[in-house]
């Protein structure tokens, strides 16, 4: 009895099917991992946003947001009011305001912030303005430089809730002992979900590149 001989075309077809099956499994496996990583990051953004860390620090850092001819925007004002409250509680003796300006602006975000704080009774000597950085990473690096010059090693960062984890991570990467104390006036509902997802993407980008994601529009650089 003669044995059955596989036809060459049948063998090639079977091989292609195995390859296609492997490609599909690899693709969906990678997709599942990506979804899990992104979902876990988004959850961590949400989780840290709920935290208000209590303790003493060398400085309170107010991350910049829009200002209008020296008048802080509602987002920036909320940060400044919260920083003022922390300062009055004695959480730190100094406040550092950060943020550059747009072309044609009369004031920078840092300058507008400093003026507002001084108007509220904070001594001018207690406020340092850093008129650099239109994104978080450059602002944090500028803060780190000032901290090194003044032998400071700790900071309380004031920003929006969804921005807390990334800004804290950046500051810790610069060698600062960092706490976060976010405002409680950030976006809600669908807008909040949008910012959480956007911030999760920015965190992952930073982790992969150690560069800023250049998020604009809400002080989330």
TrEMBL record:
The chain crosses the membrane at residues 26-46. The keyword Membrane applies. It comes from the Bacteria. Keywords: Membrane, Transmembrane, Transmembrane helix. InterPro entries: Cell_Envelope_Assoc, DUF218, Rossmann-like_a/b/a_fold. Residues 58-200 form the DUF218 domain. CDD domains: YdcF-like (cd06259). It holds the Pfam family DUF218. Gene3D superfamilies: HUPs (3.40.50.620). GO terms for cellular component: plasma membrane. This is Uncharacterized SAM-binding protein YcdF, DUF218 family.
